[in-house]
Amino acid sequence: MLTEQIKEKAEQCREEIIQFRRELHRHPELSMEEYETSHKIAEKLRSLEGMEVITGAAGGTGVVGILTGAKGAGKTVLLRADIDALPIEEKTGLPFSSETPGIMHACGHDGHAAWLLGSAMILSKLRSQFSGHVKFVFQPGEENGIGGRKMVEEDRILENPAVDAVFAAHAWPEAAAGEMCVAERCAFGYPGRFEIQVTGQGGHGSWPHECIDPIAITNQIYSGLQQIVSRRLPETAARVLSVCTIHSGPQNKRNIIPDCCTMTGTLRSDKLEVMEQMEEEIQRIARGIAAVNGASARVTTAHGRAVINSPAAVRFCLQSAARILGEEHVKLDTNPHLGGEDFSEYVARVPGAYVYAGIATEKNQGTFGLHSSSFMLEESVIPGMAAVFAQFAVDFLEKGGF
């Protein structure tokens, strides 16, 4: 049975893919600058029998491996991992800590790349036993939201051959190591942003009555925005609105009331209609408060796509992953998560699912939040997730669908 062979092959490549992850961890690279990372990935893929390797995607640092089953024509499944790091100084103290000052893999993308490579190694040894195609996509630029769109729109990775299903996974501190969770619907929410520039009339700080103070007005707008989530939206809606920056005036000028003040922030929801309502409320509140005070407010808002799992893909993932991890270790997650993820570019066009790979252990509990300088990925999960990805591909190709 292929499941047992997949488990066996995953165990055989355990040491190699863990060491590969450590190599990536030592040498992290920022979004769209993953040149050495992509070179190392391409080298590994080229060593696999039957693997076609495409480099230079997404403007230079994306890598795609295409494996065709020896049994002939069939469906095409795409497995994706992101490969970029973050501008964070590592403080884990690991023996393979980042050797690049100010940059680390603080979101687990080194692990994502390692388990995708592992799945490629497994399936290359089993290609005589399946039909169809598997695309292994090592995507740059997830953290800045650029890579996914480039690979889908510019490189057309969902075509030639046309992709029938897409899967991705994220290291997940909220689940125990060895567990895998599947979001029932919203794996990652609609990511939005806003900027409000209030323009008043500056002047001397000792004569505020002759000014229209944009800082005071921005403060009123800040308070008004807090009413959106608590008073304007239904309590059943998953939603977040956070003001993250406020800037005004030149530094070290304590006696000048400036002309302008700028506020920026983020908004998130699992529902498009809620995002649109929040954007409308921001416009209404900011412009209204500014006008009442004799000022003006220029408001800009924008939002991206959410990662919405296909219901059929959710059921498929639960059943397929259970073959590798056991039913007791595969769970349905009914809570929407409001982080942003550009895998949304894939699932907006092709049915699929984004799953969460648990990494929590007693040793790293509470010390490893995503995007933290102390983030630590539990390496023991990497071979298991490589096997899960391989099982996803084999099951989909054998069934010819979900």
From TrEMBL:
Gene3D superfamilies: 3.30.70.360, Zn peptidases (3.40.630.10). Its cofactor is Mn(2+). GO terms for molecular function: metal ion binding; N-acetyldiaminopimelate deacetylase activity. Keywords: Hydrolase, Manganese, Metal-binding. CDD domains: M20_Acy1 (cd03886). GO terms for biological process: diaminopimelate biosynthetic process. Mn(2+) binds at C107, H109, E143, H170, H371. The Mn(2+) ion enhances activity. Residues 194-287 form the Peptidase M20 dimerisation domain. It comes from the Bacteria. PANTHER family: METALLOPEPTIDASE, PUTATIVE (AFU_ORTHOLOGUE AFUA_6G09600)-RELATED (PTHR11014:SF63), PEPTIDASE M20 FAMILY MEMBER (PTHR11014). NCBIfam families: amidohydrolases. This is Amidohydrolase. It comes from [Clostridium] clostridioforme 90A6.
